[in-house]
Design brief:
Order of helices and strands: HHEEEEEEHHEEEEHHEHHHHH
Strand content: 15-25%
Helix content: 25-40%
Distance between the termini: 50 Å
Length: 310
């Protein structure tokens, strides 16, 4: 077994024969598939279950997840349970630092071992940008896996060394389009409509009607019932704007409620009453026109603020 063999296991489910064989050789017990977990109003995380194990002899730790934010790794069900994928292998954790290295030198046939000199690490991965406090370098192993090394510049030492399946960032989970879990469904659907209207989505279509059914169908069929960063076009300003939380998008909600001439009413309500009122906002031509304007204003405000900071 070499490092290359080990890295090739990343992205495989725990039922794969290669995974089973490797961990059996290492006398390690794989985490089992996990039962279906239903989200609730406080933790609408759906099926993001995880597991892990440590190889104390070799000093590595392996991490598993049932939901990978990569369209090439669909959720796998086994009866009433979800299967875990091997998604990360950490090479430089406390386990590694606390033991004598027992794996042979020949194991490290992809990248240097974690106890190598910084010079050796940089000769392989490239130079760290030490103008940054915690610079990182992403080194591709294959289409789906990166090896990542991070540095603490002030101490001139590694702070991280691991390999992981490439994942994007989740903007809206499937449960956020479900009225049972999210009282702001209509507002989020308006965000999707706004993105589509501006051709900010890779899979955009024209036109979408200003109603729930039209946009929700688009979300389910074109976006796989979620919105991930990878589904946006390559636009750095848009990406960072969308990564900000819904409640902090540069006054978006207040702008929207003001355009509806309802801001004063909204602010007069208690928190529970505000939630109930927001849930009653219709998605129609009038409300979307106000929301469209509010989103444009918030995005422009974001771009101006970022420009002034440069």
């Amino acid at each position: 077994m070499t490092q290359q063999n080990l890295l090739a296991l990343l992205g495989l489910p725990v039922t794969d024969p290669n995974i089973i064989s490797f961990f059996a050789q290492r006398n390690l017990v794989l985490p089992q598939s996990v039962p279906i977990m239903k989200p609730n109003s406080t933790t609408p995380l759906g099926i993001k279950n995880s597991g892990g194990l440590n190889d104390k002899e070799w000093g590595f730790s392996c991490h598993f997840k049932s939901e990978v934010l990569n369209e090439d790794f669909p959720v796998l069900k086994e009866g009433k349970k979800y299967l875990l994928y091997l998604t990360q292998i950490v090479f430089d954790g406390k386990l590694y630092q606390k033991r004598q290295r027992k794996e042979p030198d020949s194991f490290w046939n992809v990248s240097p071992p974690p106890d190598s000199s910084l010079e050796s690490i940089e000769n392989h991965f490239g130079k760290f940008d030490q103008s940054k406090k915690y610079p990182s370098i992403y080194f591709p192993f294959n289409k789906h896996v990166d090896i990542i090394v991070s540095l603490i510049s002030t101490e001139n030492r590694l702070s991280g060394y691991f390999a992981a399946v490439k994942e994007t960032y989740e903007l809206y989970h499937a449960t956020e389009f479900d009225r049972k879990w999210n009282y702001e469904v209509n507002l989020i659907l308006m965000v999707i409509k706004w993105l589509n209207d501006h051709h900010y989505l890779i899979n955009h279509v024209q036109p979408l009607t200003n109603n729930v059914d039209s946009v929700l169908t688009f979300v389910q069929t074109a976006l796989n019932s979620h919105l991930w960063e990878s589904q946006l076009i390559q636009n750095e300003q848009l990406r960072k704007f969308m990564l900000s939380s819904f409640d902090s998008k540069y006054g978006l909600k207040n702008k929207f409620y003001a355009l509806l001439r309802q801001l004063e009413h909204y602010e007069s309500l208690e928190w529970a009453e505000q939630k109930q009122w927001v849930a009653t906002i219709s998605f129609n031509d009038e409300t979307y026109a106000a929301f469209y304007t509010a989103m444009n204003q918030s995005f422009e405000q974001y771009k101006i603020l970022k420009l002034n900071k440069q």
